[in-house]
Specification:
By secondary structure, the protein is α+β, with helices and mostly antiparallel strands. Helix content is 34%, strand content 21%. A seven-stranded mixed sheet has the order 1-14-9-2-3-4-15. It has a two-stranded antiparallel sheet with strand order 5-8. α4 runs antiparallel to α5 and α6 packs antiparallel against α9.
Length: 365
């Protein structure tokens, strides 16, 4: 296995690039919702197999956000046929000790992956809608954590809302553009997985092609690589030198890594090792932020059990149909009428038209 060199800088906010070169890698997108289900399964296992003091320790790891209080009544109506809708964000924090892993050039946190997971009532098939981070949206008026008000703004890059205003505003923005009420919010910190990877002894990823990222300094050859926590974080942060060089390639790597990570957890004998179960659950819960209704191990475990009927292998992931912006071709906007057709199907719990699954902008794939 090849050496994975240390990156010198990160470029997570660089614009989406249009390239003519073909790119494969959408398969990874299909697995993100599945990974959430596997993660919740680990928490169910931990909740059922730990002593009370261990349970309390795990319970204290989970961070909660009071979405209802932050948004208030300015939300879509909860429809009787709308099932469960969960906004899942993959964030990449560069604050504190994590900044040292990035040579200190980037601070704060960014939401790099956004999925609206729709789980119909009484069914086994779920749908996840991926929202590209470079999508220009209208951000509604929002209240920050300190109580101050941020006015509405047009043509705001979706990815910027998290760092500028906070997760509750991301939820409100998604609800405004979709008309779909979010029942829950789950955020997974990629940097938080560093300790988890080390706790399980590393994760093997199969790199589909050579990666030579001149911006980050990451170099990997095609084939299997066993990554430790630091190397894994470098892997999910790279974007140049893979695929067509756009951010879509990096997101694909992030989702591939999440699948490989959780497959490794599943492969290990957790039932036969309560100590390992606790160690992994400790790292996993420390990487989670949820809405306040899920912000306890008991509530997460109950929610995980409620999803037992969902068959992850049938989950479908659809990218929100987008087109290149006419003013700034490095940004995208929701493509109509496809986007409206997609959200209408989610709201009414109807089959999604094939036309609503096609995106004019595809990153050269």
């Amino acid at each position: 296995m090849s050496h994975v060199s240390t990156p010198q800088r990160s470029d997570s906010d660089a614009p989406h690039r249009r390239r003519g070169k073909g790119r494969k890698g959408r398969t990874g997108k299909r697995h993100t919702g599945r990974n959430i289900l596997i993660a919740l399964g680990v928490l169910v296992l931990a909740a059922g197999g730990t002593a009370y003091w261990l349970y309390s320790d795990l319970d204290g790891n989970i961070k909660g956000v009071d979405i209802d209080k932050a948004i208030g009544d300015d939300r879509p109506e909860k429809l009787p046929t709308s099932g469960q809708n969960i906004l899942i964000l993959g964030s990449d924090s560069r604050a504190g000790a994590n900044a040292a892993l990035d040579a200190g050039h980037v601070s704060g946190a960014r939401s790099d992956t956004a999925l609206v997971m729709h789980i119909p009532d009484g069914r086994t098939k779920a749908v996840a809608v991926s929202i590209p981070r470079d999508t220009l949206v209208t951000r509604p008026e929002c209240t920050k954590k300190d109580g101050s008000t941020v006015p509405s703004a047009n043509r705001v890059m979706f990815n910027s809302i998290y760092s500028q205003v906070g997760p509750a505003c991301v939820v409100k923005t998604v609800e405004k553009i979709s008309g779909v009420r979010m029942d829950h919010y789950v955020e997974i910190d990629f940097a938080g997985f560093k300790g988890l990877v080390d706790a399980i002894g590393g994760v093997t990823v199969n790199v589909p092609q050579d990666i030579h990222d001149t911006s980050s300094g990451l170099n990997m050859t095609k084939g299997p690589h066993r990554l430790n926590g630091t190397q894994a974080l470098q892997f999910v942060r790279t974007r140049h030198g893979v695929g067509d060089g756009s951010d879509l390639g990096r997101i694909s790597l992030q989702q591939q890594f999440m699948l490989d990570l959780l497959s490794e957890i599943k492969r290990q004998d957790l039932l036969g090792s309560p100590t390992k179960t606790y160690k992994i659950a400790d790292k996993l819960t420390a990487a989670l932020t949820t809405d306040s209704d899920l912000a306890s191990l008991t509530k997460l475990a109950e929610f995980g059990r409620s999803l037992n009927g969902v068959d992850p292998s049938t989950m479908e992931t659809i990218m929100l149909p987008v087109a290149y912006d006419k003013v700034d071709p490095n940004r995208v906007v929701a493509a109509e009428p496809q986007a409206s057709q997609l959200w209408k199907a989610i709201r009414s719990d109807s089959p999604i038209p094939e036309s609503a699954k096609k995106s004019p902008a595809h990153g050269g794939s």
